[in-house]
Amino acid sequence: MDNLIEKGKKYFEKKEYGEAYECFIKALTRDPTSESAIEYLVKLIKIESDTICSINDVGDELVNTGKTQKALDMYKIFLKKSPVKDGFLKEIGDCYYNLENYVKAIESFKKALKYNPDHQPAMVMGWSSLLALKKYKEAKKWYKKYQEGLRMADCYPRHLYEAIMEEKNAVNIFQELIKDDNKNPELWYYAGLLYKNKKNYKEAVKHLNKAYKLNSKEYDFVKKIIDDIQK
Fold it and tell me: Distance between CA 110 and CA 122 in Å, rounded?
């Protein structure tokens, strides 16, 4: 380990960055929290930004082999030493997510997006964290804020509404959301489906009709659902 670090330092001093990179990545693989390896890899990031990909490969291998805490500890050291913050914050968030610490995960994704508002993976994982926490109101606001990036990643409001439908108090959650956003046809539509599933056909028709009235062009198919209920 020490030999790798010393060899890497000598290569770095001679500006033989490729060889230095190989030494420090190997050292990091052996000891993910090696301050010396991390210090020089941070220097190499400034010279070759793709170095981050190799660092993330080390982190992924740790996570995939059940060593998520080690990956987290490694990324925290990189975060302290590196001028590039958003990527490491996102990786820290991923580690917390894998550890099912969704509160810490969302904190990290929010910080990543402060450094880089266009960081799409942080948008997606922030959304997933809020759904995991069942913070549906916040998830809805998050979606509105990062709608473009989330849609590009195939994340849609229906994923939120489908998650709500699994909750015991789904009716109350939908009514709260409708209270805050009563011009949203998708909300009315999913609430209508929920009532239909619960065999409360009067409320189902009421909510489905509202969805149709708010957007008759896109919700034309709702008429058939209503007709089937009223047969």
Answer: 8
In this prediction, residues 187-191 reach a mean pLDDT of 96
CATH 3.20.20.70 given to domain 158-231: no
Which pTM was predicted?
0.89
Give the pLDDT score at 1: 65
* 8 A C-beta contact, residue 196 and residue 172: no
Distance separating alpha carbons of residues 4 and 90, to the nearest angstrom: 29
Phi, psi torsion values for 140, nearest 5 degrees: -65, -40
- Residue 71 · residue 39 · CB < 8 Å: no
The whole-angstrom distance between residue 200's C-alpha and the CA centroid of its chain comes to 36
Q: Which of 141, 143, 175, 179 is nearest to 158 (CA)?
A: 143
Closest residue by Cα to residue 129 from 152, 158, 163:
163
Q: Which sign, positive or negative, has the C-alpha torsion 34, 24, 114, 181?
A: negative
- What's the confidence (pLDDT) of residue 49? 85
The DSSP line for 69-112 is HHHHHHHHHHHHH-S--HHHHHHHHHHHHHTT-HHHHHHHHHHH
